[in-house]
């Protein structure tokens, strides 16, 4: 049901850029360690790469569709916002962080800054490590403009005179191989007590002319092109999704160009030549004052020996009181559910439960969804070992997890090789649900155990993202988990689950029902009508209008939306009862918690955890789960740890305005993440 009241929602792409503006603000915080501030600059670059590869590429595609609502003006506005953000990013890097690094005796030396011994060392490094891998290509009819892969680094040079054959071909391209490190640390004996680095681009610049004997380099620039990298296959027309995706991984690197980056000193004739080669308008040109790929400065952070300039290491706590170490997790779960709050609590109990299942002869079957596990994964190794031991292993591998396709294809092939049953979900729908189910024989009967999570089965990101996971032997939840796996394998008709909600079938409609229930309570005069939603993105129009109707009826609505939010809060008479905040701190906020209150009795409230954000794609084009937290003790813990601290946060929180711009609430006070770290560190 859509709202008849016309309301212009905020632009999704500008909302994504606004989130990155909040992340970039972390690089300006004096209370954040210096190398971590630099890392936030790198994170923004990485985020923007994906933004151009996927979101902006989609906009450019949509604007050519006569049925699309995306206009050329929309594209222009988003492009201008991206230019502004990138300019600000380089300004912070050059004028704030670089001088602060210099004070800490951490320097990046350009050719002009290097003394004679350093130049000799760089020259030898170039001759030994770099030059043998460079192949300059002079352009002529026999050497047309080369294929330039997505995000690969190149140099363009304009040369003097004629080539060896007397021809006036003056443009040359030099590809910089990905295998070369982008940041090189100088030996200590050449660094004068400092930690001195040179960038690979600076090394090549200093010796570029050596690649063109007998000719001078009159002008040059680094450049990098970003391409549309959404991997598309016609799933209705192919016989084997895995084979189609594997072949598509190669062509992904050469999709339609969407952005060209050059250094700000690049002569206009060279940038215009490149724009013409890539078929790009002037608006797609980004002149940057520094390296064209700031992501690679992560190499500098990793090589710098300065523990005091990093976050103090945080070790996730083991839930000792609820899950004693070195004891059977199955035995513990028979007595009650265990809720894990990452990264404040360790992900290791999940791994231990799977280890226990693999080693236990009474465990007959293991089923797991695989979305983003990484190229190396103990969990996947354990599934392979379980299959080798003769257990029934079913893996639902999402091959279309963006930018993880290759790793997931490799895991699928390894699992199939040992006899595991591998399925790829449902054509046209990504499997984004996070489920692990173990079936065990106990006293002649079968009993199921499950892990359900808001996050991925990746121990590395479990130390960096906030997520909630439930270990359970609850008969209803484990039966629901089993039904989801059967649904994915058999493709049978959907049958409502006992307690879980499953997208694309009933999650969206149930969320709308709960919003309407709170709205009705508010209309009837219930003053405590309340909605608190903590998610990563809010872009689904129907859910937005459901929130607006509940708020207009008098319900208090608090939204904690990490990333893109298209609901404009604070509009008089429309959304002035809605507060939207975003928390950006040390960890990436990833939990999805949904709270509704429509009456004073315990039956008058509901709290769900979910794998899904409130986006149309999650609700209608993905397999997602949400499950209610019905145990009063666990429900209160979720409220006390995953909702209330974020509503009280004054240090890491930003508040969204009706114009789509967000303002930091304060620079002092309470940080939810820091408070939770202290709580778990103190036991």
TrEMBL record:
Keyword Metal-binding: yes
Superkingdom of the organism of origin: Bacteria
GO function terms (MF aspect): polyphosphate kinase activity
Cofactor (UniProt): Mg(2+)
Domain Polyphosphate kinase middle: 118-300
EC number assigned by the record: 2.7.4.1
Protein's UniProt keywords contain ATP-binding: yes
Binding site residues for Mg(2+): 372, 402
Binding positions (ATP): 47, 465, 562, 590
PTM notes: An intermediate of this reaction is the autophosphorylated ppk in which a phosphate is covalently linked to a histidine residue through a N-P bond.
Domain Polyphosphate kinase N-terminal as annotated: residue spans: 10-108
Entry's family note: Belongs to the polyphosphate kinase 1 (PPK1) family.
Function, in words: Catalyzes the reversible transfer of the terminal phosphate of ATP to form a long-chain polyphosphate (polyP).
Protein name, entry field: Polyphosphate kinase
Classification of source organism: Bacteria, Pseudomonadati, Pseudomonadota, Betaproteobacteria, Burkholderiales
């Amino acid at each position: 049901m859509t709202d008849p009241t016309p309301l212009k929602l905020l632009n999704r792409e500008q909302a994504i850029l606004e989130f990155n503006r909040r992340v970039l603000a972390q690089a300006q915080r004096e209370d954040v360690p210096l190398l971590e501030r630099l890392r936030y600059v790198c994170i923004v670059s990485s985020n923007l790469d994906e933004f151009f590869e996927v979101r902006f590429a989609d906009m450019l595609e949509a604007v050519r569709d006569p049925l699309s609502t995306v206009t050329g003006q929309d594209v222009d506005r988003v492009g201008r916002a991206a230019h502004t953000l990138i300019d600000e990013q380089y300004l912070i890097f050059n004028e704030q962080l670089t001088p602060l690094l210099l004070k800490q005796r951490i320097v990046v030396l350009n050719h002009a800054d290097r003394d004679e011994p350093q130049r000799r060392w760089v020259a030898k490094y170039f001759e030994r490590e770099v030059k043998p891998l460079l192949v300059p290509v002079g352009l002529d009819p026999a050497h047309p403009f080369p294929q330039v892969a997505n995000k690969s680094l190149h140099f363009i040079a304009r040369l003097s005179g004629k080539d060896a054959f007397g021809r006036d071909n003056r443009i040359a391209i030099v590809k910089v191989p990905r295998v070369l490190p982008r940041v090189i640390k100088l030996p200590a004996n050449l660094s004068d007590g400092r930690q001195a680095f040179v960038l690979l681009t600076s090394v090549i610049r200093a010796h570029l002319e050596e690649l063109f004997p007998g000719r001078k380099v009159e002008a040059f620039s680094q450049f990098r092109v970003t391409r549309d990298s959404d991997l598309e296959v016609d799933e209705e027309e192919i016989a084997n999704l895995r084979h189609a995706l594997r072949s598509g991984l190669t062509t992904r690197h050469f999709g339609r160009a969407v952005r060209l980056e050059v250094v700000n000193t690049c002569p206009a004739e060279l940038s215009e030549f490149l724009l013409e080669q890539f078929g790009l308008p002037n608006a797609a040109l980004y002149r940057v004052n520094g390296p064209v790929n700031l992501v690679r400065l992560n190499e500098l952070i990793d090589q710098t020996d300065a523990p005091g300039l990093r976050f103090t290491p945080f070790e996730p706590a083991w839930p000792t009181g609820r899950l004693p170490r070195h004891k059977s997790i199955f035995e513990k779960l028979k007595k009650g559910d265990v809720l894990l709050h990452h990264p404040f609590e360790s992900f290791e109990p999940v791994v231990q439960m799977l280890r226990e299942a693999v080693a236990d002869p009474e465990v007959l079957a293991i089923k797991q969804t695989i979305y983003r596990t990484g190229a190396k994964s103990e969990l996947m190794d354990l599934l392979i070992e379980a299959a080798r031991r003769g257990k029934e292993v079913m893996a639902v591998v999402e091959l279309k997890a963006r930018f993880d396709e290759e790793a997931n294809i490799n895991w699928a092939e390894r699992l199939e090789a040992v006899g595991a049953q591998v399925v790829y979900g449902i054509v046209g729908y990504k499997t984004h649900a996070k489920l692990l189910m173990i079936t065990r024989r106990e006293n002649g009967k079968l009993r199921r155990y499950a892990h359900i999570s808001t996050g991925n089965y990746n121990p590395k990101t479990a130390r960096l993202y906030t997520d909630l996971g439930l270990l359970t032997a609850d008969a209803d939840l484990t039966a629901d988990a089993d039904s989801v796996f059967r649904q994915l394998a058999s493709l049978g008709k959907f049958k409502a689950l006992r307690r879980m909600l499953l997208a694309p079938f009933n999650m969206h409609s149930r969320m709308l029902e709960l919003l309407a229930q709170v709205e009705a309570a508010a209309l009837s005069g219930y003053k405590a009508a309340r909605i608190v939603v903590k998610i990563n993105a809010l872009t689904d129009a129907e859910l937005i209008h459901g929130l607006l109707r509940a708020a207009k009826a008098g319900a208090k609505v608090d939204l904690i939306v990490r990333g893109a939010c298209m609901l404009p809060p604070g509009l008089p008479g429309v959304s002035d009862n809605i507060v939207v905040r975003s928390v950006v701190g040390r960890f990436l906020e990833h939990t999805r918690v949904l709270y509704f209150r429509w009456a004073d009795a315990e039956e008058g409230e509901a709290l769900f955890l979910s794998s899904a954000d409130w986006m149309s794609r999650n609700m209608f084009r993905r397999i997602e789960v949400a499950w209610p937290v019905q145990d009063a003790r666990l429900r209160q813990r979720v409220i006390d740890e995953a909702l209330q601290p974020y509503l009280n946060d004054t240090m890491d929180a930003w508040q969204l305005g009706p114009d789509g711009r967000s303002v930091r609430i304060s620079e002092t006070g309470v940080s939810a993440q820091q408070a939770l770290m202290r709580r778990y560190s103190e036991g």
